[in-house]
Design a protein that fits this description.
Layout lengths: L1 H15 L2 E2 H8 L3 H13 L3 E9 L4 E8 L4 E8 L3 E8 L4 E8 L7 H21 L3 E9 L2 E3 L4 E5 L4 E5 L2 H6 L4 E4 H12 L8 E6 L3 E7 L2 E2 L30 H5 L7 H19 L3 E6 L5 H14 L9 E4 L6 H16 L9
Parallel strand pairs: 4-7, 7-11, 12-15, 15-16
Antiparallel strand pairs: 1-3, 2-3, 4-5, 5-6, 8-9, 9-10, 12-13, 13-14
Helix pairs in contact: 1-3, 2-3, 6-10, 8-9
Bound molecules: zinc ion (ZN).
Zinc ion (ZN) binds next to loops.
Length: 355
Protein backbone atom coordinates (compact mmCIF):
# COMPACT_ATOMS: atom_id res chain seq x y z
CA UNK A 1 0.00 0.00 0.00
CA UNK A 2 2.80 2.37 0.95
CA UNK A 3 4.63 1.52 -2.28
CA UNK A 4 1.43 2.27 -4.21
CA UNK A 5 1.03 5.66 -2.49
CA UNK A 6 4.69 6.55 -3.05
CA UNK A 7 4.20 5.79 -6.73
CA UNK A 8 0.98 7.82 -6.94
CA UNK A 9 2.63 10.77 -5.27
CA UNK A 10 5.69 10.74 -7.52
CA UNK A 11 3.52 10.28 -10.62
CA UNK A 12 1.34 13.22 -9.57
CA UNK A 13 4.37 15.47 -9.05
CA UNK A 14 5.78 14.51 -12.45
CA UNK A 15 2.56 14.93 -14.41
CA UNK A 16 0.68 17.65 -12.54
CA UNK A 17 3.65 19.61 -11.26
CA UNK A 18 4.84 20.74 -7.81
CA UNK A 19 2.35 21.23 -4.99
CA UNK A 20 2.12 21.81 -1.24
CA UNK A 21 1.58 18.82 1.06
CA UNK A 22 -2.04 19.88 1.58
CA UNK A 23 -2.65 19.93 -2.16
CA UNK A 24 -0.84 16.63 -2.64
CA UNK A 25 -2.99 15.03 0.07
CA UNK A 26 -6.08 16.11 -1.89
CA UNK A 27 -4.62 14.90 -5.19
CA UNK A 28 -3.92 11.37 -4.03
CA UNK A 29 -6.69 11.10 -1.44
CA UNK A 30 -4.75 10.50 1.79
CA UNK A 31 -4.35 12.51 5.00
CA UNK A 32 -1.87 15.35 5.27
CA UNK A 33 0.11 13.39 7.89
CA UNK A 34 0.41 10.42 5.51
CA UNK A 35 1.43 12.77 2.71
CA UNK A 36 4.18 14.26 4.88
CA UNK A 37 5.52 10.78 5.65
CA UNK A 38 5.42 9.83 1.95
CA UNK A 39 7.21 13.05 0.97
CA UNK A 40 9.89 12.39 3.61
CA UNK A 41 10.37 8.85 2.23
CA UNK A 42 10.72 10.06 -1.38
CA UNK A 43 13.04 12.88 -0.26
CA UNK A 44 15.31 10.35 1.50
CA UNK A 45 15.52 8.50 -1.83
CA UNK A 46 16.37 11.76 -3.58
CA UNK A 47 13.27 11.57 -5.77
CA UNK A 48 11.61 14.80 -4.58
CA UNK A 49 12.87 18.12 -3.30
CA UNK A 50 11.31 21.06 -1.54
CA UNK A 51 11.17 24.39 -3.24
CA UNK A 52 9.87 27.83 -2.26
CA UNK A 53 6.54 28.69 -0.68
CA UNK A 54 3.41 29.52 -2.56
CA UNK A 55 0.13 30.87 -1.22
CA UNK A 56 -2.69 28.35 -1.18
CA UNK A 57 -5.74 29.56 -3.07
CA UNK A 58 -7.83 32.35 -1.62
CA UNK A 59 -7.01 31.66 2.01
CA UNK A 60 -3.51 32.97 1.21
CA UNK A 61 -1.83 30.57 3.63
CA UNK A 62 1.64 29.77 2.33
CA UNK A 63 2.66 26.11 1.88
CA UNK A 64 6.09 24.71 1.10
CA UNK A 65 6.10 23.36 -2.44
CA UNK A 66 7.24 19.80 -3.09
CA UNK A 67 8.49 18.90 -6.55
CA UNK A 68 9.79 15.81 -8.32
CA UNK A 69 13.58 15.74 -8.67
CA UNK A 70 13.05 15.69 -12.43
CA UNK A 71 16.46 17.10 -13.30
CA UNK A 72 18.67 15.46 -10.73
CA UNK A 73 17.64 11.80 -11.20
CA UNK A 74 18.17 9.92 -14.45
CA UNK A 75 18.71 6.57 -16.13
CA UNK A 76 21.25 5.22 -18.60
CA UNK A 77 20.05 4.01 -21.99
CA UNK A 78 22.39 1.97 -24.21
CA UNK A 79 21.99 0.73 -27.75
CA UNK A 80 24.05 -1.60 -29.92
CA UNK A 81 23.51 -0.99 -33.62
CA UNK A 82 25.16 -2.58 -36.61
CA UNK A 83 27.41 0.41 -37.21
CA UNK A 84 27.70 2.13 -33.82
CA UNK A 85 27.02 2.06 -30.11
CA UNK A 86 25.00 4.71 -28.27
CA UNK A 87 24.71 5.83 -24.65
CA UNK A 88 22.27 8.41 -23.36
CA UNK A 89 21.09 9.74 -20.03
CA UNK A 90 17.39 10.56 -19.73
CA UNK A 91 16.21 12.37 -16.60
CA UNK A 92 13.04 11.73 -14.57
CA UNK A 93 11.32 14.62 -16.41
CA UNK A 94 12.00 12.57 -19.59
CA UNK A 95 14.47 14.97 -21.13
CA UNK A 96 17.48 13.49 -22.96
CA UNK A 97 20.33 15.23 -21.18
CA UNK A 98 23.42 13.43 -22.49
CA UNK A 99 24.02 11.50 -25.71
CA UNK A 100 27.21 9.81 -26.90
CA UNK A 101 27.72 7.78 -30.06
CA UNK A 102 30.74 5.79 -31.15
CA UNK A 103 30.79 4.76 -34.80
CA UNK A 104 32.35 1.45 -35.82
CA UNK A 105 31.26 -1.64 -37.68
CA UNK A 106 30.01 -4.22 -35.17
CA UNK A 107 29.33 -6.90 -37.80
CA UNK A 108 31.23 -10.13 -37.42
CA UNK A 109 33.07 -8.51 -34.54
CA UNK A 110 33.77 -10.53 -31.42
CA UNK A 111 30.90 -9.63 -29.05
CA UNK A 112 33.43 -9.08 -26.25
CA UNK A 113 35.02 -6.26 -28.25
CA UNK A 114 31.66 -4.63 -28.94
CA UNK A 115 30.64 -4.95 -25.29
CA UNK A 116 33.91 -3.28 -24.33
CA UNK A 117 32.92 -0.36 -26.62
CA UNK A 118 29.52 -0.27 -24.90
CA UNK A 119 31.22 -0.23 -21.51
CA UNK A 120 33.44 2.69 -22.54
CA UNK A 121 30.60 4.81 -23.96
CA UNK A 122 28.40 3.99 -20.93
CA UNK A 123 31.12 5.06 -18.48
CA UNK A 124 31.63 8.27 -20.44
CA UNK A 125 27.89 9.06 -20.19
CA UNK A 126 27.78 8.16 -16.48
CA UNK A 127 30.76 10.43 -15.77
CA UNK A 128 29.06 13.30 -17.62
CA UNK A 129 25.86 12.62 -15.66
CA UNK A 130 27.76 12.86 -12.37
CA UNK A 131 29.37 16.11 -13.51
CA UNK A 132 25.91 17.49 -14.39
CA UNK A 133 24.54 16.55 -10.96
CA UNK A 134 22.35 13.71 -12.25
CA UNK A 135 22.13 10.59 -10.08
CA UNK A 136 21.64 7.48 -12.23
CA UNK A 137 19.17 4.97 -10.79
CA UNK A 138 19.89 2.20 -13.32
CA UNK A 139 20.23 1.39 -16.98
CA UNK A 140 19.11 -0.82 -19.83
CA UNK A 141 20.50 -1.98 -23.17
CA UNK A 142 18.79 -2.23 -26.57
CA UNK A 143 20.05 -4.93 -28.94
CA UNK A 144 19.13 -5.70 -32.57
CA UNK A 145 18.06 -9.29 -32.06
CA UNK A 146 15.98 -11.80 -30.15
CA UNK A 147 16.45 -11.58 -26.40
CA UNK A 148 14.86 -12.99 -23.29
CA UNK A 149 14.55 -9.92 -21.03
CA UNK A 150 14.15 -12.14 -17.93
CA UNK A 151 17.48 -13.99 -18.37
CA UNK A 152 19.06 -11.28 -20.52
CA UNK A 153 20.27 -13.89 -22.98
CA UNK A 154 20.70 -12.72 -26.57
CA UNK A 155 19.75 -15.67 -28.79
CA UNK A 156 20.45 -14.26 -32.21
CA UNK A 157 21.28 -10.92 -33.81
CA UNK A 158 21.26 -11.74 -37.55
CA UNK A 159 22.86 -8.53 -38.76
CA UNK A 160 25.67 -8.72 -36.22
CA UNK A 161 26.11 -12.46 -36.93
CA UNK A 162 25.87 -13.10 -33.19
CA UNK A 163 24.48 -16.29 -31.66
CA UNK A 164 23.92 -16.95 -27.94
CA UNK A 165 25.72 -14.01 -26.37
CA UNK A 166 25.73 -13.45 -22.61
CA UNK A 167 25.12 -9.75 -21.96
CA UNK A 168 25.34 -9.96 -18.17
CA UNK A 169 29.08 -9.35 -18.47
CA UNK A 170 28.23 -5.63 -18.61
CA UNK A 171 26.76 -5.79 -15.08
CA UNK A 172 30.21 -6.40 -13.63
CA UNK A 173 31.72 -3.67 -15.76
CA UNK A 174 29.11 -1.05 -14.79
CA UNK A 175 28.40 -2.11 -11.22
CA UNK A 176 24.62 -2.55 -11.57
CA UNK A 177 22.19 -4.96 -13.20
CA UNK A 178 21.49 -3.79 -16.73
CA UNK A 179 18.08 -4.47 -18.28
CA UNK A 180 18.12 -5.89 -21.83
CA UNK A 181 15.48 -5.85 -24.56
CA UNK A 182 15.04 -5.82 -28.31
CA UNK A 183 15.75 -2.43 -29.94
CA UNK A 184 12.38 -2.12 -31.68
CA UNK A 185 10.47 -2.99 -28.48
CA UNK A 186 12.36 -0.23 -26.69
CA UNK A 187 11.92 2.15 -29.63
CA UNK A 188 8.15 1.57 -29.46
CA UNK A 189 8.18 2.34 -25.72
CA UNK A 190 10.17 5.52 -26.35
CA UNK A 191 7.56 6.63 -28.91
CA UNK A 192 4.80 5.87 -26.41
CA UNK A 193 6.44 7.85 -23.58
CA UNK A 194 8.13 10.79 -25.27
CA UNK A 195 7.67 10.46 -29.03
CA UNK A 196 5.16 10.31 -31.85
CA UNK A 197 2.89 7.81 -30.08
CA UNK A 198 2.07 9.90 -26.98
CA UNK A 199 -1.67 9.51 -26.42
CA UNK A 200 -2.00 6.44 -28.67
CA UNK A 201 -3.20 3.08 -27.31
CA UNK A 202 -2.57 0.73 -30.23
CA UNK A 203 0.16 1.21 -32.79
CA UNK A 204 2.92 -0.54 -34.70
CA UNK A 205 6.44 0.87 -34.60
CA UNK A 206 8.83 0.05 -37.44
CA UNK A 207 12.51 0.80 -36.90
CA UNK A 208 14.68 1.07 -39.96
CA UNK A 209 18.44 0.67 -40.20
CA UNK A 210 20.55 -2.10 -41.68
CA UNK A 211 17.94 -4.34 -40.05
CA UNK A 212 14.21 -3.72 -39.76
CA UNK A 213 12.57 -4.17 -36.37
CA UNK A 214 8.98 -3.98 -35.23
CA UNK A 215 7.31 -3.17 -31.92
CA UNK A 216 3.62 -3.76 -31.33
CA UNK A 217 1.76 -1.84 -28.64
CA UNK A 218 -1.77 -3.13 -28.02
CA UNK A 219 -4.06 -1.19 -25.71
CA UNK A 220 -1.13 0.62 -24.08
CA UNK A 221 1.02 -2.47 -23.48
CA UNK A 222 3.97 -3.82 -25.47
CA UNK A 223 3.21 -7.23 -26.99
CA UNK A 224 6.20 -9.52 -26.49
CA UNK A 225 4.73 -12.83 -27.54
CA UNK A 226 5.27 -16.11 -25.70
CA UNK A 227 9.09 -16.08 -25.97
CA UNK A 228 9.67 -12.35 -26.39
CA UNK A 229 10.04 -12.78 -30.16
CA UNK A 230 6.92 -10.85 -31.29
CA UNK A 231 7.18 -7.95 -33.70
CA UNK A 232 9.93 -9.31 -35.98
CA UNK A 233 8.48 -7.39 -38.89
CA UNK A 234 11.82 -7.38 -40.72
CA UNK A 235 11.43 -11.10 -41.39
CA UNK A 236 7.87 -10.97 -42.64
CA UNK A 237 7.97 -12.34 -46.19
CA UNK A 238 7.36 -9.87 -48.98
CA UNK A 239 8.27 -12.31 -51.79
CA UNK A 240 9.19 -15.98 -51.13
CA UNK A 241 11.40 -15.92 -54.26
CA UNK A 242 13.10 -12.68 -53.29
CA UNK A 243 16.71 -12.00 -52.29
CA UNK A 244 18.48 -13.84 -49.48
CA UNK A 245 18.14 -12.24 -46.02
CA UNK A 246 20.69 -12.19 -43.16
CA UNK A 247 18.37 -14.61 -41.29
CA UNK A 248 18.85 -17.28 -43.99
CA UNK A 249 15.36 -17.03 -45.53
CA UNK A 250 14.35 -15.38 -48.77
CA UNK A 251 12.36 -12.27 -49.55
CA UNK A 252 12.11 -10.86 -46.02
CA UNK A 253 11.04 -7.21 -45.75
CA UNK A 254 14.52 -6.37 -44.45
CA UNK A 255 16.14 -7.49 -47.71
CA UNK A 256 14.11 -4.81 -49.56
CA UNK A 257 13.96 -2.02 -47.01
CA UNK A 258 17.17 -2.32 -44.93
CA UNK A 259 19.63 0.52 -45.42
CA UNK A 260 22.03 -1.88 -47.20
CA UNK A 261 19.41 -2.81 -49.82
CA UNK A 262 20.10 0.22 -52.04
CA UNK A 263 16.37 0.60 -52.68
CA UNK A 264 14.80 3.89 -53.77
CA UNK A 265 12.22 5.57 -51.49
CA UNK A 266 9.56 4.35 -53.93
CA UNK A 267 10.75 0.74 -53.64
CA UNK A 268 11.03 1.03 -49.85
CA UNK A 269 7.44 2.30 -49.61
CA UNK A 270 6.24 -0.47 -51.93
CA UNK A 271 7.79 -3.29 -49.89
CA UNK A 272 6.76 -1.72 -46.58
CA UNK A 273 3.17 -1.51 -47.76
CA UNK A 274 3.12 -5.21 -48.67
CA UNK A 275 4.21 -6.15 -45.14
CA UNK A 276 2.12 -3.51 -43.37
CA UNK A 277 -1.06 -4.44 -45.23
CA UNK A 278 -1.02 -7.78 -43.41
CA UNK A 279 -0.22 -6.07 -40.12
CA UNK A 280 -3.07 -3.56 -40.47
CA UNK A 281 -5.55 -6.31 -41.34
CA UNK A 282 -4.39 -8.36 -38.36
CA UNK A 283 -4.05 -5.65 -35.70
CA UNK A 284 -6.20 -2.67 -36.81
CA UNK A 285 -3.83 -0.11 -35.23
CA UNK A 286 -4.46 3.63 -34.76
CA UNK A 287 -1.14 4.37 -36.44
CA UNK A 288 2.05 3.03 -37.93
CA UNK A 289 5.12 4.86 -36.70
CA UNK A 290 8.18 4.84 -38.91
CA UNK A 291 11.44 5.20 -36.99
CA UNK A 292 15.19 5.20 -37.58
CA UNK A 293 16.18 5.65 -41.24
CA UNK A 294 12.55 5.15 -42.30
CA UNK A 295 11.59 8.39 -40.54
CA UNK A 296 13.92 10.42 -42.74
CA UNK A 297 11.73 10.52 -45.84
CA UNK A 298 8.32 12.24 -45.86
CA UNK A 299 7.73 10.62 -49.28
CA UNK A 300 7.94 7.10 -47.83
CA UNK A 301 5.44 7.89 -45.05
CA UNK A 302 3.02 9.59 -47.45
CA UNK A 303 3.31 6.83 -50.01
CA UNK A 304 2.71 4.06 -47.44
CA UNK A 305 -0.29 5.93 -45.98
CA UNK A 306 -1.78 6.46 -49.43
CA UNK A 307 -1.32 2.82 -50.47
CA UNK A 308 -2.70 1.49 -47.17
CA UNK A 309 -5.79 3.66 -47.67
CA UNK A 310 -6.48 1.89 -50.98
CA UNK A 311 -5.19 -1.59 -50.22
CA UNK A 312 -6.74 -2.34 -46.83
CA UNK A 313 -10.34 -3.37 -46.38
CA UNK A 314 -11.23 -0.61 -43.91
CA UNK A 315 -8.86 2.02 -45.32
CA UNK A 316 -11.60 4.00 -47.10
CA UNK A 317 -13.55 4.52 -43.89
CA UNK A 318 -10.93 4.40 -41.13
CA UNK A 319 -7.50 4.96 -42.69
CA UNK A 320 -4.50 3.97 -40.61
CA UNK A 321 -2.36 7.00 -39.89
CA UNK A 322 1.35 6.83 -40.76
CA UNK A 323 3.57 9.02 -38.58
CA UNK A 324 7.29 9.67 -38.65
CA UNK A 325 9.33 9.37 -35.44
CA UNK A 326 10.85 12.58 -34.15
CA UNK A 327 13.28 10.82 -31.83
CA UNK A 328 16.02 10.16 -34.36
CA UNK A 329 18.22 7.09 -34.55
CA UNK A 330 18.70 6.80 -30.76
CA UNK A 331 15.04 6.02 -30.00
CA UNK A 332 15.86 2.57 -28.61
CA UNK A 333 18.47 3.96 -26.19
CA UNK A 334 15.92 6.55 -25.02
CA UNK A 335 13.36 3.74 -24.61
CA UNK A 336 15.87 1.68 -22.64
CA UNK A 337 16.34 4.54 -20.16
CA UNK A 338 12.55 5.05 -20.09
CA UNK A 339 11.97 1.46 -18.90
CA UNK A 340 14.20 2.12 -15.89
CA UNK A 341 12.43 5.42 -15.14
CA UNK A 342 9.01 3.73 -15.54
CA UNK A 343 10.07 1.07 -13.04
CA UNK A 344 11.30 3.76 -10.64
CA UNK A 345 8.00 5.66 -10.79
CA UNK A 346 6.01 2.42 -10.44
CA UNK A 347 8.05 1.42 -7.38
CA UNK A 348 10.11 4.26 -5.84
CA UNK A 349 11.42 1.85 -3.17
CA UNK A 350 13.73 0.42 -5.88
CA UNK A 351 15.89 3.50 -5.25
CA UNK A 352 17.83 3.07 -2.00
CA UNK A 353 17.11 5.50 0.80
CA UNK A 354 19.93 7.58 2.22
CA UNK A 355 18.01 8.49 5.38
ZN1 LIG B 1 14.94 -12.50 -42.74
Amino acid sequence: MRRHHLSMLLESLLHEGPASRANLARRIGVTKATTSALVADLAARGLVSEGGTRSEGRSGRPGVEVGAAGWSVGALGLQIEVDRVVACIVDLARTVRIEHRVDGDNRRTDPARVLARVEAVAKHALADARAAGIRCVGGALAVPGLVDPSTRALFVAPNLHWLDVDLTWLDHALGFELGVDNEANLGALAELRVGAAIGLRTFVYVSGGVGIGGGLVLDGALVRGVHGFAGELGHVVVDPHGPLCACGSRGCLEAYVGSDSGASPEEVAQALTVALRSVVHLVDPQAIILGGDLAASPEVAEHVAEQLRHETLGGRWRPCEVRRSLLGPDAAAIGAAATVLDATVADPTLVPSSG
